[in-house]
Amino acid sequence: EVRLVESGGGMVQPGGSLRLSCVASGFRLDLYNMVWVRQAPGKRPERVSRINDRGEVTYYADSVVGRFTASRDNAKNTLYLQMNNLQLEDTALYYCATHNGSRRGQGTQVTVSA
Description:
0% helix, globular, four-stranded antiparallel sheet
């Protein structure tokens, strides 16, 4: 079965950190450029980062530059998003997807609340 499964979300206070993981099964993640996307309630999806098949990050949204770090471990078929200094506006459902949009996970909820 082809799947992308995210984990690592939760509730944190402003200034806190979380590390999201996205595990691929049923296909080779290293064949794809990947993105992290987030969607807050009532808002359009926002691309957070893009990472190519070699692990080079080619895009961060301006709002996360200096705070978020995307990475991947192709040997583990896993994508990561390290999120530091989280702010209230980072609250959203975060999901990983192939850059071409052919596959995406169900997402993991990140809530930043005082």
